[in-house]
Amino acid sequence: MIDHRFISLRRAVAAALAVLPIAIAATPAAAQTATGTIGVELTVTNACVVNDSTTLQSTLGTVGDVNFGTQPGTFQTVDGELVGNVGALSIRCSPDASPTLTIGSGSNDNAGVRRMISGSATIPYRLYTNASRDNEITIGRQMSLGPATTAPIVVPIYARASNPGGIARAGRYTDTVQITLAW
């Protein structure tokens, strides 16, 4: 006699085994993870800018002018001051940089004295670090400006022109002084 319970059990086991691979395939595998890092780096070098520039300047151009105004030919001495687009010369450098400013001779110097020229006539002048004009900026003088902070370094430059000849020839007298900013 056939035991129907046994056949039913056998069919149930066969059906379960047939469905088992589908059930295993439908179950997602456990996700795996790996971690790492990203290196981030920036190298900043010292920099200086002049007169509120926002970009590093390889040439400073004209940083300002000393204008002695219009004087009669009989003037004795006249004082002036460097004035740039923001007033006095203003230098901003990276904090802790040690900037230096070197003031050159000018285009018409003679025997260690800067001179303005008009044709063949000259008028000597001198540059100073203070308004009392007793601390001369000699030709090639290197002025230490640091250490820098985040605040601008204001570098006032004063000037005095002298008329040693009694009556100066009329004309427009000019000179150009080279400056070098190093840091």
Automatic annotation (TrEMBL):
Segment forming the signal sequence: 1-31
The Spore coat protein U/FanG domain covers: 35-180
Lineage, top-rank taxon, reads Bacteria
The keyword Signal is annotated on this UniProt entry: yes
Keyword annotations for this protein?
Capsid protein, Signal, Virion
Q: Does the keyword DNA repair apply?
A: no
The name under which this protein is listed is Spore coat protein U domain-containing protein
Identify the species of origin. Sphingomonas baiyangensis
